[in-house]
Design brief:
Radius of gyration: 15 Å
CATH class of the largest domain: Mainly Alpha
CATH architecture of the largest domain: Orthogonal Bundle
Number of strands: 5
Distance between the termini: 41 Å
Shape: globular
Largest sheet: 3 strands, antiparallel
Structural class: alpha+beta
Order of helices and strands: EEEHHEHHEH
Strand order of the largest sheet: 1-2-3
Number of domains: 2
Oligomer: single chain
CATH superfamily of the largest domain: Winged helix-like DNA-binding domain superfamily/Winged helix DNA-binding domain
Strand content: 15-25%
Helix content: 25-40%
């Protein structure tokens, strides 16, 4: 599987492609470095995001997961840059439970682009499974200006 790694403000990131679709964004440096057009574009869009020049992504994604996870991930993609929704709100909207929403967030194969960091607890940030945990989540939300809204 072709991968391309780069440095970001939240650590090393690796994007991976399969059959012409972006299939994962992971923390750490990948082993199979290959510069495909899609991976170069994914890297460039993420760099633009971190540089404050991009608020939405335009990439061909393949999200492998259960039908429930895909519903949650689709909901995540509707949360605008700089905004958040709570686990409870998303759960109510799709007829589920907040804990199940959190588990779908944890299983998200394409974080940052599918912005699971934009789902928070009613009483705080909640968790984050990316490298750096909640510190990274707060960094991403601060980058998007969310902290200045609340």
């Amino acid at each position: 599987m072709p991968q391309l790694s780069f440095h970001s403000p939240v650590g090393e990131i690796t994007v991976s492609e399969e059959d012409g679709f972006l299939v994962s964004v992971d923390w750490g440096w990948g082993q199979d470095q290959q510069k495909t057009p899609l991976l170069i574009e994914a890297r460039n869009q993420l760099i633009e995001y971190f540089d404050g020049k991009r608020r939405a992504f335009a990439l061909q994604l393949h999200l492998a997961g259960t039908p429930f996870q895909k519903r949650v991930w689709l909901e995540m993609q509707s949360i605008p840059y700089g905004s958040v929704l709570t686990y409870g709100y998303v759960a109510k909207k799709i007829g589920s439970a907040p804990r199940a929403i959190g588990m779908a967030c944890r299983a998200n194969p394409i974080p940052l682009i599918v912005p699971c960091h934009r789902i928070v607890s009613a009483s705080g940030l909640g968790g984050y499974s990316g490298a750096g945990g909640v510190v990274t989540k707060q960094t991403l939300l601060d980058h998007e200006g969310w902290g200045s809204h609340n």
